[in-house]
Amino acid sequence: MSTFRLYTIDSAPEQSRPVLQQLQQTFGFVPNIAGIMAESPVLIGAFVNLFQKVHAGTFTEAQIQTLLLTNAVTNACTWAVAFHTALALNEGLTSADVEAIREGRQPADRRHAALSALTKTAIEKRGHLDEHDVSAFIAAGFRRDQVLEVLAVAAASTITNYVGSIAQPPLEAQFQVHAWKA
């Protein structure tokens, strides 16, 4: 059970309210994890700014969800796994590929497998990628600059994953079907 408060737009600190309003417009609701992040205007502001940059990068939304779901599994954040399972399926990832990621395996799609492998390796090796790790990613059709972009996605998802692990936000009803246990 979390000891952190779950804020709404009306109850959040004044500096966090515009960010929560923006998330409300984006998703149609304020995700519970954002309601908890709102306690720190610095954190939620940095989080949303970084995610905006990530979603404006070179990866497709399906590729971003592959990265985010893999990161959530690798970091064992139950809230984020459920949330990004729903988003990955909405972005067209196959159920089989989503299930593979949730089980810690590589998706069948070659490019999604390369994304998943690189981000998982980067997290597990704490950023100490070697030339083999980078070469395998590039061999799947990605560019060297995108290795660094993967790190931006990992940085953004680390915020979510760590807040989820620390604060344990309740899982929204619409994501219960995708509940996950580490």
Explain this structure:
- It is a single chain.
- By secondary structure, the protein is mostly helical.
- The protein folds into 2 domains: about 15-55, no CATH class; about 60-180, Up-down Bundle (AhpD-like).
- It is about 65% helix and about 0% strand.
- It is built from 9 helices and no strands.
- The chain has helices at about 15-25, 30-35, 40-55, 60-75, 80-90, 95-100, 110-125, 130-140, 145-165.
- About 40% of the residues are buried.
- It comes from Paraburkholderia xenovorans (strain LB400).
- It holds the Pfam family CMD.
- InterPro entries: AhpD-like (IPR029032), CMD-like (IPR003779).
Give the total of domains.
2
- Give the quaternary arrangement of the chains: single chain
**Total count of strands:** 0
Order of helices and strands: HHHHHHHHH
**Top CATH class of the largest domain:** Mainly Alpha
Pick out the low-confidence regions. Answer: none
Domain Carboxymuconolactone decarboxylase-like: 48-118
Pfam families: CMD (PF02627)
Protein name: Carboxymuconolactone decarboxylase-like domain-containing protein
Gist?
The protein has helices spanning 17-27, 32-37, 41-55, 61-74, 78-90, 95-102, 110-124, 131-139, 144-167.
Entry keywords:
mainly alpha, Carboxymuconolactone decarboxylase-like domain-containing protein, 2 domains, globular, 182 residues
Topology:
Blueprint: H1 17-27, H2 32-37, H3 41-55, H4 61-74, H5 78-90, H6 95-102, H7 110-124, H8 131-139, H9 144-167
Helix pairs in contact: 3-9, 4-5, 4-7, 4-9, 7-8, 7-9
